[in-house]
Amino acid sequence: MPSILAYDLGASSGRALLGRLKNGKIEVEELHRFSNDPVGVGDRLQWDILRLFHEIKQGLLKAKHAGVTPASLAIDSWAVDFGFIGRNGELLGNPYHYRDHHTDGVMERTMERLTASKIFGRTGIQFLPFNTIYQLAALKEADSPFLQGAERFLMIPDLLRYFLTGEMHNEFTNATTTQLYNPLEGRWDAELLADIGLSSSLFGEVVQPGTRVGSLRASICEELGIGSVPVLATAEHDTGSAVAAVPALERDFAYLSCGTWSLMGTEVDRPIINELAQELNFTNEGGVYGTYRLLKNIMGLWILQECRRAWERAGQYYSFPELVSMAEKADAFKSLIDPDDAVFIHPGDMPSRVRQFCAASGQPVPETPGEIVRCILESLALKYRYVLELTERLSGKSFSGLHMVGGGIQNVLLCQWSANAIGKPVWAGPVEGSALGNLVVQWIAQGELSDIWEARQVIRDSFPVTVYEPQDGTRWEEAYGKFRELTGLA
Ligand code: ADP
Ligand code: LRH
Questions:
Q1: What does DSSP say about strands 254-258 and 402-405: parallel, antiparallel, or unpaired?
Q2: Which of 75, 228, 292, 342 would bridge 7 by S-S if both were Cys, CB 3.0 to 4.6 A apart?
Q3: What is the pTM of this model?
């Protein structure tokens, strides 16, 4: 059975996995792993897109050195970000990072001008200040030369695919995250595009996951000394791929894709676009094979990543396992934060922001790294309970437990505390959810797997799922009361 290649680019790191189907099981080999380091230049925070492309080539070289010519490859990445192609076919500037400050205040102004109900009613997408629509509105307000020279809009995986193949397509799952795609009409929303002053001609044909969208350019094959490889569009939004890989047996399942972000929700057959969904600020992101992800973004392990970076800048390096072990030794429920408070969105001195939040809400101020990490992880677990309850309310479903996938499940304390907080079992696995979702969509396209439910069964048969049973119910119930009071969450 030939091998295929999946590139999964997260906001904090990327990897290339080689996958093979053998006797109804998936075998994976990690060919290449690299950090993803955004770069501040002047006032702007940008993605190092050419370095990411270099790492993609490194993955191809490592496949060659392993003696493998992949039968296909596909790329998924974080959502919302993009670049423009100019009339000479070249990329105009580095894509901005969605955490850059150029969108400050733009969402509020756009919502006021267009109305929130119009934007939500036409897209079903939650309001996040960095959604593509607000990034584009910010560039328009700033009269950006990139926008002036733009001929085509490509999101990050579209762009990397274009570098590989020379062909331009916009992929569906990622396109929905722009808040400019109308899922009811099944196309870019011409009215919203006109409202923010953008020409529809920038936005190309939207292709579904599993579509073959080209093959490696001859120049790349020559440079790397390899044969041509077919390139597919997969579920190119990493969360779309992660949810495709949830090893659920039942159709009504709840998931938490746990990495830089925590994305919690359920899969639905059609977008739920109503007043309650808008009020609770839930989203309906496009998924595989006609599904949608009714979910909510929770700030996630970003806060921990940024604390770790701040300590590293101060000369103190801690690994994630070290931080988890320090948190375990700190006192329980000393102080809590609302992880989704806007103060935590942008990069910066995160330990100070956590301390300030605690001081301003009249709680003891966590001082040591262990105390700070404990505060972050307990608060995340409590927020998971809150959002899980909202998901049940909005979807009308009732969940018997929670599937957790992604790099964050290596944090066993967070998995256990999540089970404690929700009072239900957590089923943790697989770690490489997005890369596996990327692979199974390719296999379904090639007819190697019949559909997403067979794919989920094969993933279940191939990778361990760790079960965390809830513990300490009374203490977590009390903490949840304190958390809601403190955060003002109704
Ligand atoms: P993304 O795809 O968004 O870049 P990942 O899914 O790779 O994120 O998850 C990264 C997160 O996983 C890190 O921020 C860290 O909190 C957690 N993590 C990674 N490795 C470990 C580990 N060995 N122990 C505990 N947590 C870990
Ligand atoms: C997770 C993710 C998430 C988006 C955010 C920008 O990596 O794709 O689904 O909201 O990044």
A1: parallel
A2: 75
A3: 0.98
